[in-house]
Amino acid sequence: MTEPSRARRSPGLLRAYQVLGIVVPLLGALIGGLLAHRSDAAYERDTGKVLSSGTERGDVIAGALSGFMLAVLIAFLVIVVVGLLRKLVLRTRSDR
What we know:
By secondary structure, this protein is mostly helical. 83% of the residues lie in helices and 0% in strands.
């Protein structure tokens, strides 16, 4: 049986992939940066030591990058799993 063409893919799924590929990594970066900032604030509060602005800025950037990369990885895995499940469902339907 022939593979379904990309043109027949549902527009809803295409929109979901676009959102997953754009919004999720940006949210991951935002959450990662905020968590790093909170971690630095908690460290300063607990130890009484004040971090330099360069250290704080570097921690926030590192947190944002790690959050972004984790979100990209998760989005990629979700897209791959959904694609594999769609192929499996189409193959199962065509066998009937």
